[in-house]
Amino acid sequence: MDTLRGRLLVATPAIESGPFLRSVVFLLDHDGDGALGVIVNRPSESEVDDVLPDWAALVNAPVCLFEGGPVAMDSALALGVIADIAPPGWRQMAGRVGLVDLEGPLPDHGELAGLRVFAGYAGWGADQLEAEVEEGAWLVVDALETDLISPQPETLWREVLRRQDDDIRFWTTFPDDPSAN
Q1: How far is CA 155 from CA 60, 75, 81, 89, 102, in A?
Q2: Burial class, 103, CB count within 10 angstroms (exposed 0-12 / middle 13-18 / buried 19+)
Q3: Is 101 within 8 Å of 115 (Cβ atoms)?
Q4: Which of 39, 100, 143, 173 is the one with CA 20 to 30 A from 75?
Q5: Bridge partners of 67?
Q6: By three-state DSSP, how is residue 92 classified?
Q7: Number of C-alpha atoms within 13 angstroms, CB side, residue 8?
Q8: What is the spatial distance between Cα 36 and Cα 16, in angstroms, rounded to a whole number?
Q9: For 122-157, how does the pLDDT look when each residue is reduced to its tens digit (9 = 90+)?
Q10: DSSP 8-state code for residue 7
């Protein structure tokens, strides 16, 4: 499988519980050693201002930490979309999307078109993600920059599925609790 870096993983109804239920994951890295990404549609109750007060003014609404995944939830990483020129400490992931160094200097006003801060990340070992995709747990789709900084992240799962060209878009009608159907 070619690298999936910069693409989205969209959880299928095969994932029935846990942190990946109806999740949308942006893949930051994917190679023969495994994959790493962040869940972009899981806002948390924690405010960025409580953890990284200097960064709060740069974060897009909702101005909260996002639950990036079940790994290393006591660490933070920031995903940014550059406006034009990359600020110091920015590491490109795909197109205008990259990681922002939270230990470095704050970007100047206007350097970022968007910013999100994530607590934790999602990780897969060698061949693990490929097996999960083959089993039907994940769809791999193109990411839009706007997916990563959506002002309504709780609707992102359905929005991403709805814009697909095939019958997959009908999964948006899948009930939250199939047993109640």
Answers
A1: 16, 26, 20, 31, 27
A2: exposed
A3: no
A4: 143
A5: 119
A6: strand
A7: 23
A8: 21
A9: 999 999 999 999 999 999 999 999 999 999 999 999
A10: E
Which structure tokens are listed for 101? 């160094």
Half-sphere exposure of 110 (CA within 13 A, CB side): 1
Sign, CA dihedral 55-56-62-68, equals: positive
- β-strands 34-39, 97-100: how paired? unpaired
User: Average pLDDT in the 88-107 region?
Assistant: 92
Please give the mean pLDDT across all residues of the chain.
92
What secondary structure letter does DSSP report for 143?
-
Using alpha carbons, select from 146, 169, 142 the residue that is nearest to residue 158.
Answer: 169
Q: Residue 79 pLDDT more than 60? A: yes
Count of Cβ atoms closer than 10 Å to residue 60 Cβ: 17
Q: Is the separation of the CB atoms in 99 and 77 below 8 Å?
A: yes
Q: Which residues are paired to 76 by β-bridges?
A: 119
- Region 85-92: mean pLDDT is 89
8 Å CB contact between 63 and 49: yes
DSSP state of 63: -
User: What is the amino acid identity at position 19?
Assistant: P
Domain covering 7-180 assigned CATH 3.40.1740.10 in the classification: yes
Task: Indicate the helix (H) or strand (E) that contains 125.
Answer: strand 112-125
Is this prediction's pTM over 0.85?
Answer: yes
